[in-house]
């Protein structure tokens, strides 16, 4: 499936209570504390549940998950 | 006594419900001396509270002195005079006519404190969302590295601290709500979220209840002072203005599974106050729990 930006924004806002008004595609989320470990677990669990198989531990990196842009790029590259 | 100005005000709230904020706001008013926690009423309540024996007899100071011919009214009255005299003297030293007593755990002694103070004081009660209280209690206990004695029973009965905090909140909050409903002329009930969202109108109503003029200007200076007398909440001093940043913090601090577990404990009381009941995530099977743990481990490597 094609994971959409709106899906991600909706989850950040609705499930994780993130104020997305100031969040751009390149805003760093985890490394700057916008979301914490608990929320990151929720986010990755959500991505796995909506896009397919488990994400390998080696892929759980800041390069793949620290911003909306990076997450979308990683998730959609997996699906390709 | 209701048509007279009463010298004292007692604040009741579950610990971590905004009682320190409220105390500091009252202390900024020219009529009220509201220092840090004195434990005066807490200790007086502990003094009065006996243990119920199997035959129903309360073993404690009231009945103990009763056998010597001192009536319970006399014991309570003498203790009241002692406690009030300290607070009266301190208020006078501050040049203020009235005093405010707030100690975090007083809500767990509400009935005894009411017996002690009766209608000689006014009562200000504050309630806050249970899961925000639970999160704040976790921070408080972590910082203190100890549980106050009023929480020992909950910790003994609940091996998971968050469950213990939630049950303590339920008991304290229902006691406060029962009290406020039963004593509408003596007690004013505030909700923390309303207070921080609209301090001016909430404080205006509070000061009207207390029979004092609301000095709006005091709001701007109430939290700028670093009143160091007495025990107090370290977090309160980190703020110089009223803010609502901690409202709904539980949504980002507690996992969905934890919220689901706590919902069974807190929802009836949340509904009673008028909050929306909380809904957590669905039940996870063992594979899902393992997967979440694996993700958590992977995330630790990012730090």
Q: Care to give the gist of this entry?
A:
Chain A has 80 residues and is mainly α. Chain A contains four helices and no strands.
Q: Any idea what the shape of chain B is?
A: globular
Number of E-type strands of chain B: 7
- Major sheet size, sense and barrel closure of chain B: 5 strands, parallel
Strand content of chain B: 5-15%
Radius of gyration of chain A, CA atoms, in whole angstroms: 11 Å
Number of helices of chain A: 4
Task: Please provide a written account of the structure.
The complex is a heterodimer of chains A (80) and B (303). Chain A contains 4 helices and no strands. By secondary structure, chain A is mostly helical. Chain A has one domain (5-79): Non-ribosomal Peptide Synthetase Peptidyl Carrier Protein, Chain A, CATH 1.10.1200.10. In chain B, the strands form 2 sheets. Chain B has a 5-stranded parallel sheet with strand order 2-5-1-6-7, with helices on both faces. In chain B, α2 (40-48) runs antiparallel to α4 and α7 (149-157) packs across α8 (161-182). Chain B is globular. The A-B interface holds A 16-18, 30-31, 35-42, 44-45, 48, 54, 57, 60-62 and B 248, 251-256, 288, 291-292, 294-302. Chain B: Keywords: Transferase. Chain B: This is Sulfotransferase. Chain B: It holds the Pfam family Sulfotransfer_3.
Topology:
The complex is a heterodimer of chains A (80) and B (303).
Chain A: H1 5-14, H2 37-51, H3 62-65, H4 68-79
Chain B: E1 8-13, H1 19-27, E2 32-33, H2 40-48, E3 51-52, E4 58-59, H3 61-66, H4 72-93, E5 98-101, H5 110-117, E6 121-127, H6 130-144, H7 149-157, H8 161-182, E7 187-191, H9 192-197, H10 199-210, H11 217-221, H12 250-253, H13 256-273, H14 286-300
Helix pairs in contact in B: 2-4, 6-8, 7-8, 8-13
Pfam families (chain B): Sulfotransfer_3
Keywords (chain B): Transferase
InterPro entries (chain B): P-loop_NTPase (IPR027417), TPST-like (IPR026634)
């Amino acid at each position: 499936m094609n994971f959409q930006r709106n899906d991600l924004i909706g989850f950040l806002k609705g499930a994780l209570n993130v104020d997305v008004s100031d969040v751009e595609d390149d805003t760093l989320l985890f490394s700057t504390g916008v979301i914490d470990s608990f929320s990151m677990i929720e986010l990755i669990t959500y991505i796995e549940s909506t896009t397919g198989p488990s994400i390998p531990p080696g892929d759980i990196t800041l390069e793949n998950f620290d911003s909306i842009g990076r997450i979308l790029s990683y998730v959609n590259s997996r699906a390709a | 006594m209701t048509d007279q100005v009463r010298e004292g005000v007692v604040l009741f709230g579950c610990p971590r419900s905004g009682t320190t904020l409220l105390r500091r706001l009252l202390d900024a008013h020219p009529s009220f001396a509201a220092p840090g926690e004195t434990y005066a009423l807490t200790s007086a309540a502990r003094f009065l509270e006996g243990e119920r024996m199997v035959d129903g007899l309360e073993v404690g100071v009231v009945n103990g002195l009763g056998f010597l011919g001192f009536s319970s009214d006399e014991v309570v009255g003498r203790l009241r005079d002692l406690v009030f005299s300290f607070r009266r003297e301190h208020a006078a030293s501050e040049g203020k006519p009235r005093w405010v007593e707030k100690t975090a755990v007083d809500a767990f002694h509400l009935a005894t404190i009411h017996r002690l103070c009766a209608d000689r004081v006014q009562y200000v009660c504050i309630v806050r969302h249970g899961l925000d209280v639970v999160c704040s209690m976790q921070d408080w206990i972590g910082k203190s590295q100890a549980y106050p004695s009023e929480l020992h029973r909950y910790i003994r009965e609940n091996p998971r601290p968050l469950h213990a905090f939630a049950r303590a909140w339920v008991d304290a909050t229902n006691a406060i709500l029962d009290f406020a409903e039963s004593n509408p002329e003596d007690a004013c009930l505030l909700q923390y979220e309303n207070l921080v969202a609209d301090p001016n109108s909430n404080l205006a109503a509070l000061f009207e209840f207390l029979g004092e003029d609301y000095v709006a200007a005091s709001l701007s200076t109430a939290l700028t002072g670093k009143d160091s007398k007495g025990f107090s909440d370290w977090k309160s001093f980190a703020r110089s203005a009223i803010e609502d940043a901690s409202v709904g913090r539980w949504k980002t601090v507690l996992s969905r599974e934890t919220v689901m577990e706590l919902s069974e404990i807190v929802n009836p009381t949340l509904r009673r106050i008028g909050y929306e009941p909380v809904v957590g995530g669905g039940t996870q099977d063992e594979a899902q729990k393992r997967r979440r743990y694996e993700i958590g481990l992977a995330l630790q490597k990012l730090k």
